[in-house]
Amino acid sequence: MKLAIFGATGRVGGEILKRALADGHEVKALVRSEKLETRPNLEVVIGDVRNADDIEKTIKGTTAVFSAIGTDRTTTLSDAAPLIVKSMEQNGVQQIISIGTAGILNSRLSPGLLRYEGGDSKRKMTFAAEEHEAVYRLFEKTSLHWTIVCPTYLPDGEAQGNYRTEKDFLPLEGKEITVGDTAEFAYRLLNSKEFIQSRVGLAY
Known about the structure:
Protein name: NAD(P)-binding domain-containing protein
Strand content: 15-25%
CATH superfamily: NAD(P)-binding Rossmann-like Domain
GO molecular function, one term: oxidoreductase activity, acting on the CH-NH group of donors, NAD or NADP as acceptor
Number of helices: 6
Oligomer: single chain
Radius of gyration: 16 Å
Domain NAD(P)-binding: 7-192
CATH topology: Rossmann fold
Order of helices and strands: EHEEHEHEHHEEHE
Strand order of the largest sheet: 3-2-1-4-5-6-8-7
CATH class: Alpha Beta
Shape: globular
Structural class: alpha/beta
Organism: Planococcus donghaensis MPA1U2
Number of domains: 1
Pfam families: NAD_binding_10
Distance between the termini: 30 Å
């Protein structure tokens, strides 16, 4: 399979990249600068995720997309997402697995709201959640086979495999999930139809 990865130099994106290459997939990764070492089956595209031409170069010829674009106090994510969707639609690429945040899962405390709106999350800053919600609302309007993986607190750490998942909600009493398990779960979705067109909460 040929995959496009956005955010491949980040924590989760880097782990997804490792797994894809280890399994023999061909990967095209869009990065801002020469941060990725050359590896077999890896095509590095130097560019900007907010540039339509760079997005097109990365998606053309692929069969599925991973997005692990960070929010880092900028609108990079919400700027890039419409360009990714447009390029996928134009190139007939159906599947996208995106890394989101638990803040955009449904609230258990305030039905009808998201966690970051309903008081479930202790985070006072809502910028990142708002960015991820913009992507979620965009995906909802498409016919793409999208899944947004929504981890809670995300410390560094290897995959352990003993995590819980729940469609549209954070598993009860979920406190954290490692980068390794988040990447492992997201990567496994490549061959699963279980959470197509939904968010999925992820926690131990």
